[in-house]
Amino acid sequence: MLSIKNILLALLAVFTVGFVIIWARHLFTRGGTPGAEKTQPPTAFETLIGFVTNFFDTLGIGSFAPTTAIFKFRRMVKDEAIPGTLNVGHTLPSITQAFIFMALVEVEVVTLAALIAAAVAGSWLGAGVVARWPRRKVQFGMGLALLAAAALFALRNVDEMRGTPVFAGGDALGLTDGLLLVGIVGNFVLGALMTLGIGLYAPCLIMISLLGMNPRAAFPIMMGSCAFLMPVASAKFISVGRYAARPALGLTLGGIPAVLIAAFIVKSLPLTAVRWLVMVVVLYSSAMMLSSAIREASAAEPSPEG
Fold it and tell me: Burial level of 216, CB count in 10 A (0-12/13-18/19+)?
């Protein structure tokens, strides 16, 4: 008889195949639009972004906030298309992470399955909303999302510098009763917010630790959650064409080998200094995103009659 974990892995394989088919069909037909240009191969720089962000993503930094910062700083992707590009481009690297950590790291399977299902439900709701938001609302939302991400980076670093860290977690490998319900609700919200560009890793790791679980057990939960929810969210963004295809391809092609190198060769690094650097870059990007939103809001206001 198949175990719950093996069923999850088999289901993830089905999600992966479905996502690849949906994305490939859209890339080759451009959504069935007559005369649409074919998608060009990603540049070396776009592929490098995928490699670097997914390398550190596998080690627990997260990929959404730094990728957003680079896109915004280099003006590579239109603001309204950034959430979709993040979800689509990082999907296959995240699935690769999930297969590795769900197979190798021990966690109680009911907790794993319940929190993954909650994140998927949240992403389905969130993507349906964000994919149809106007540009200015996306800019405001992502600006605030980046502020939240920077706060989480600072929180993690300050906590690690404490003699008795609050987020050290416990020894439990699963949740029960009320704590399980809190975890389900929390991951539902995180799944919805991820479609706006708030990475799930840092807040999920903090939540798992505060609920008394072993922080290492958070890795299959947060990576499994992303691996299941991102194909669902990405399908929404692909269906309305709300993403940039070439940069998304770069994230994927650079990201998959980076995940394998980080997971099997590097395995761990001291990441406090990296988080501080990412926090500064993310704060700058948040200011740029909010500034763009405010300027466009001001430009859209009707001139007073005089």
Answer: middle
CA gap 214, 170 in Å, rounded:
5
Encoded amino acid at 226, one letter? C
* pLDDT tens-place string over residues 165-220: 655 667 788 888 889 999 999 899 888 878 776 777 778 888 888 888 888 888 88
Instruction: Compute the chain's Rg from CA coordinates.
Output: 19
Helix or strand run (H / E) with residue 231: helix 218-239
Q: How many CA atoms lie within 13 A of 271 on its CB side?
A: 20
User: What is the pTM for the complete model shown?
Assistant: 0.80
Q: Count helices and strands (H / E) in the chain.
A: 11, 0
φ, ψ of residue 111 to 5 degrees: the values are -60, -45
> Is 123:88 a contact under the CB 8 Å cutoff?
no
C-alpha angle 218-160-222 in degrees, rounded to nearest 5: 15
Residue-range domain boundaries for the chain: 4-31+38-294
